[in-house]
Amino acid sequence: MSKQSQQPQSIFNAALLKGALRDSLKKLDPRTLWRNPVMFCVEIASGITLVTFVMSLTGANREPAWFTGTVSVWLWLTVTFSTFAEALAEGRGKARAASLRKSRTYVTAKRLDKAEFGQNYTTVGASQLRKGDLILVEANDMIAGDGDVVAGAALINESAVTGESAPVIRESGGDRSAVTGGTTVIANSIIVRITANPGETFLDRMISLIEGAKRRKTPNEVALEVLLIALTLVFLLVCANISPLSIYSVKQAGHGTPVSLTILVALFVCLAPTTIAALLPAIGIAGMDRLFQKNVIALSGRAIEAAGDVNVLLLDKTGTITHGNRQAVTFVAVGGHSERDVAEAALMASIADETPEGRSVVVLAKEQHGLVRETPQDAEVMEFSADTRLSGINLAGNQYRKGASDSIIAFVRKRGCTTVPGDLTEVVDRIARGGATPLVVCKGSEILGVINLKDIVKAGIQERFLQLRSMGIKTVMITGDNPLTAAAIAAEAQVDDFLAQAKPEEKLRLIREYQEQGYMVAMTGDGTNDAPALAQADVAVAMNTGTQPAREAANIIDLDSNPTKLLDIVEVGKQILMTRGNLTTFSISNDIAKYFAIIPAALLSIYPQLGVLNVMRLASPFSAILSAVIFNAIIIPMLVPLALKGTRFRPMPAEKLLIHNLLIYGVGGIIAPFVGIKIIDMVIGMVV
């Protein structure tokens, strides 16, 4: 089984850089840039300095033309670096979307009137299909649109969507009935009911989301943007008041020159939170891109953001905590019956059961007792359901069932059983305490014995749960097993809590209880019965192999259909929040050094005493201002790789993580500009 994983594209890719540069120049259009108010103000400031440069060339401005011109160039570069960061993040998504578009070809479909094999069909183009249409898909046919299998079963190649080269089975009547347009049937035939109109298919949504065309700002982004706008307005008022203050001071002191417009503009741009304002869009876009690298599609930025705030995880036991391929290992007789009696009844109850557990029962009956049977033509098959929690067949007046202990006891009592075998409870408890699943077997109103189904906890899952616990995240295992089995598996896996014998309404109730207590809840699911809980959860991860209702209820789709991916999604969500917080801290800390560079330089001719604040010993007022402007510009492209890659995720308590990041990005944000501005000043001193 091979997998074509989504490889992260290097930001140093020549074609990517060229496209990003072209798009960044387009984003300088004020009609586009106004959506980023801070950088829009910087663009206006850049235009003002361009005018002062022209005035300097004509002699209408007393400042040196080289100074005003250089300041203007670097302010324009500041805006361009900002749009370049966003364009680069979007470019990586557009490259992936382009590769998906290339995989799309013109597809025809065999439209049917009824969901029956063998009838005539009409050949139509995929664009003519509408929600509710029925189509026949045979071997080597490409599925023309998203839908649910309503008849038949087939082997399907989904590599065009998931990257997974191993084919998968899709069949009607179960939780693996959903199919995706653009995938190909390898063997057998199926009838599919279309569930999406053209332009609304999963592949269309993938392309749109990857490109970022429909990306909306998350609540945290909006809140941070409001803060940045408020800070920008404060600095704008401060700078606007410095000019009349300097004019008044010159008149009173009788010496010095008022602060020029170019210096005021430079001061405003350096003090405004330009660094985080420039990188904020790129952080959000890159976060969705990192999820796509893990074969996860987030249907909204809000979902990723919520994943970063999750403090309760609801995880299915089967396939997430355990391997999910439970196997029958023994038959245990009760009530004086023989083990062969149990094997025969278990074989009959499982003969039409195509689940791995059901097939393992058939194999065990053959290996241990030589029992072999085919499904009788006149047998009535009783499928397993979450409500009854049992399955089997009705044949020749006999009812063979296997299922949970309480369900089987209720079943036989309805059929006249008055006495349950005395050793049944002891056998069921013993198997359950060992972490296995006991399935009780009956024939009619008589309980014969128990099947021991063994499942294995995944290696390393305990360490993942310990990491989550260290981050303050509570893990809750959800299972249909009885409480004893659930308790044994929960103890072995080291989860914090569990919900046994879980039904859809109980999952929904549990989520609501946690939410009422103020928790952010995440869960995974793939079945129709998971849809209500997925719709209620703050972060709902649906398996791509799941049913259409589950996928529609979710806000995140896992293309690999790997339930453990929820842990990775939480890590990416926290990484996005950390990156945004760290770069905000760094951006605001940067301003401290700029105070010591620009303010003394701007007012030194009026207040010579301010020379004591020139702690960096910058060469001249012009050099100091220019050094601060250049540093303010070049720090943006230097931080672009960090914004796109994200800060390193460290599983630790929130208070320790806060202290750690404050030391690195807070203290680092204070120190770095002092060093950078001084180095730039020294270079300017050698050139000018």
Automatic annotation (TrEMBL):
Matches recorded under PROSITE patterns: ATPASE_E1_E2
This protein's membrane topology, according to the annotation, is: Multi-pass membrane protein
Q: Which reaction does it catalyse?
A: K(+)(out) + ATP + H2O = K(+)(in) + ADP + phosphate + H(+)
Q: Where in the cell is it found?
A: Cell membrane; Membrane
Q: What InterPro entries does this protein map onto?
A: ATPase_P-typ_cyto_dom_N, ATPase_P-typ_P_site, ATPase_P-typ_TM_dom_sf, ATPase_P-typ_transduc_dom_A_sf, ATPase_P-type_domA, HAD-like_sf, HAD_sf, P-type_ATPase_bsu_IA
Under the heading Gene3D superfamilies, the entry gives:
Calcium-transporting ATPase, cytoplasmic domain N, Calcium-transporting ATPase, cytoplasmic transduction domain A, HAD superfamily/HAD-like
Give residue ranges for domain P-type ATPase A. 118-211
Q: What is its EC number?
A: 7.2.2.6
Listed CDD domains = P-type_ATPase_K
| Highest rank taxon of the organism | Bacteria
Positions annotated to bind ATP? D353, E357, F384, S385, A386, D387, T388, R389, L390, S391, K402
- Tell me which residues this entry annotates as catalytic: D316 (4-aspartylphosphate intermediate)
Transmembrane domains' residue ranges: 37-59, 65-89, 222-243, 263-286, 592-610, 622-642, 662-687
What residues does Mg(2+) bind to?
A: D526, D530
Q: Which family does it belong to?
A: Belongs to the cation transport ATPase (P-type) (TC 3.A.3) family. Type IA subfamily.
- Subunit structure, as described in the record: The system is composed of three essential subunits: KdpA, KdpB and KdpC.
- What is this protein's function per UniProt? Part of the high-affinity ATP-driven potassium transport (or Kdp) system, which catalyzes the hydrolysis of ATP coupled with the electrogenic transport of potassium into the cytoplasm. This subunit is responsible for energy coupling to the transport system and for the release of the potassium ions to the cytoplasm.
Q: Which HAMAP family match?
A: KdpB
Q: What name does the UniProt record give this protein?
A: Potassium-transporting ATPase ATP-binding subunit
List the gene name. Answer: kdpB
